[in-house]
Amino acid sequence: MRPKKMTDHYLTYQLADLMGYEFHESETVPPLFLTRQADGSLDFFIPCSEYNHVNPIQDKALETDQISYLAHLIYATGHSYSEGLTYDTAESMLRATPRQRAEAAYMTLKEALGHE
User: Fold this and answer.
1) pTM of the predicted model, to two decimals?
2) CA-CA distance, 81 to 73, in Å (whole number)?
């Protein structure tokens, strides 16, 4: 399934799986995912709407494949893959929402891990 068609909840679930997070689904509606921190505490995992939650995923995607992540971010911000890096695409990437960054990271990690 393409990330643009995924709900925030489903994309969050897929990202948690790709990141290898051990998560616990809360009882709230809609369900929020919680990750267990090193100190044993739980923290919310909502990368589609929070910059501080998408940053670790973005970092992992960049560590995995910088070029692929940038290409996917260009695509996630509404441009074509063939457009390449222009002033318009650079501005779009700098203004990318957490959801767009999460989509680009998802595509990069899924591709790198062979989950096509």
Assistant:
1) 0.84
2) 9
